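Weekend entry, working from home. Most of the wet-lab plans are on hold until the incubator is repaired, so I used the time to fold the two sequences that have been sitting in the queue since the last round of cloning. Logging both here for the record. First:
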Amino acid sequence: MNLLISDLEGTLVDFQWKLKESMDEMCKIIKGYNINYNLGLPITKLKRLNYSKLYNYFQKNIENPMLKKKIINDFDRIYDFYDEDAAKRWRLKSDVVTILKQLCEKDVKIALCSNVGRKALDYILDKYKIKIFFDITISRDDVNFLKPSIEGVKKILKFYKIKKKEPQDNIYFLGDSLTDVYTAKKAKIPSIIIVDEGENSFEEIYKHDPNHIIYSIKELLMFY
């Protein structure tokens, strides 16, 4: 099977998420929960995590189901706000429509796996009329754990009835960030990382040894 699993922000659209502002707001909420519920959280350690690892930490480490639901709902509210804010400025990268169309013509199956929430994800896919290229789209609202967890990737592989990657399978994970590199490694799928003005610099990406680095989405055609 020819399959491309793609990220969204920084990969198909430009990167616009306000990382610092969102993390500052998250840390204020975490401090409040730590004090009010005497959670004994490692605040210094948590401040070093990015937004997806922070989200996953609380999914894994809060035992009280009601408290976990309350915290995750607060996280989702903040992330939805910054999704909506970024979506106002997102622009489709050059040649995305052309390349997606050419991949489909080559009988490449295309799936989307993003940490963006469903509302913003569908908004941008509809705005640029690219939803038709994807067989399945996985958003933050479709999983319990965000990338670099491979929960979303597993859902995609299950959709295509892929239980184990066979030698003849031509499957790649396309992204722009360290999170995407980690996700691909955990899923044991070769990564293709676009280095652009995304979440991480070329130097950061290179140090973590992705399988392939490209500078334009047009280079995808080399793999199929």
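Second, folded right after the first finished:
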Amino acid sequence: MKAMRVASTVSIALLLSCGARAENSEPFAKWLDKAAPECVPVAEFNSVAKTIRLTPEQFEFVRALYVAIPPMSKKLPPGDHAVLAVAKDQAMLALVTDDVSCARFLAPDFVVAMLMQVGAGASAKIGDPASYETYR
């Protein structure tokens, strides 16, 4: 029950923070705008930001966030790795395949902090990992 409350609080805070920062998304506005092309070469991000390739664990964390942020995705997000682009005190996370991002979003500071914890190997062990076999 406590875990559900924490998850709800984090989700609400994430949504509020992302919505507030989306309006002030410079220098990433041209890639986050609704009129932006769906897929963008990561090299374009390098023109305004420092990009960092994330670890496989961080990639899975970013994928989970992407699915949860409205509009919620009903399918597995595109990408086989993720990058963090940082510029002007803003952070954008992008899911990437073949050096092209077809999924990206702004990341509030607390999400970037959690992402760094994931990269350092921090985790909260609650139970056993689920698999399809244990679900059925």
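Plan for Monday: verify the second prediction. The chain has one domain: 2-122.
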